[in-house]
Q: What sequence folds into this?
């Protein structure tokens, strides 16, 4: 996907949901994966021509894994310098807490909560009023299916949400971007591969694989699921009887 098209897709999401306002200070949660690197690049470019002026910081959480690839990390650091985004690396003991102390059998939920907490805390220290996360359209669909199948409710993440406890808005400017397009777009970016032993062994990965399998029988499955997220007036659900 060429620059202009991806930048246009991200900008459309920003405009449609008013995700960025004049004077915003935005802390971007940077894992070093393809999604967050794409969001980093796009917001760094968009800030140059968006009428509303905003500041951008990259926040990377060092989970404490000893086998993190230092060469890959250095490439990400250099990339941030090239696109003129200030990078802050926050060292934590999240890996030790999750795997050694708590010995979590299903570590992803606790790790994600602690990682988000660290990003939010650093964003507040930097004076940010918003945090940008790199959830693609696939994440919105997968979250909808996870909520439906494991929680018994119809729900997904939102383009913008407000964390009242810490007074931060969370924005997701990649909501119109499909993962397949992000993979192509980020092919030349430096990528920091995830050293977590639970990577690719999660319920979200199972849901991703399930949707892919359904797509083999019906190529429209994913696009119809994505359409359903915006078709909120067409729900035909059963209302509970009045007692």
A:
């Amino acid at each position: 996907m060429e620059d202009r098209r991806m930048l246009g897709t991200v900008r459309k999401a920003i405009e449609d949901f008013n995700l960025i306002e004049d004077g915003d200070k935005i802390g971007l949660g940077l894992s070093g994966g393809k999604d967050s690197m794409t969001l980093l690049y796009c917001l760094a470019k968009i800030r140059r021509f968006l009428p509303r002026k905003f500041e951008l910081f990259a926040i990377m959480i060092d989970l404490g894994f000893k086998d993190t690839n230092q060469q890959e990390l250095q490439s990400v650091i250099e990339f941030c310098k090239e696109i003129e985004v200030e990078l802050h690396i926050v060292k934590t003991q999240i890996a030790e807490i999750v795997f050694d102390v708590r010995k979590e059998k299903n570590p992803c939920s606790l790790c994600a909560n602690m990682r988000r907490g660290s990003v939010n805390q650093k964003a507040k220290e930097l004076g940010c009023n918003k945090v940008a996360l790199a959830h693609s359209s696939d994440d919105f669909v997968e979250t909808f299916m996870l909520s439906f199948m494991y929680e018994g409710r119809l729900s997904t993440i939102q383009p913008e949400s407000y964390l009242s406890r810490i007074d931060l808005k969370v924005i997701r400017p990649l909501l119109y971007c499909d993962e397949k397009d992000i993979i192509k777009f980020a092919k030349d970016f430096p990528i920091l591969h995830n050293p977590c032993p639970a990577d690719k062994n999660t319920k979200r990965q199972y849901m991703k694989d399930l949707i892919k399998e359904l797509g083999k029988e019906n190529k429209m499955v994913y696009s119809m699921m994505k359409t359903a997220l915006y078709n909120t007036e067409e729900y035909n659900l059963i209302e509970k009887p009045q007692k």
About this structure: Residues 3-232 form a domain with the Rossmann fold fold (CATH 3.40.50.620). Residues 108-125 form the longest helix (18 residues).
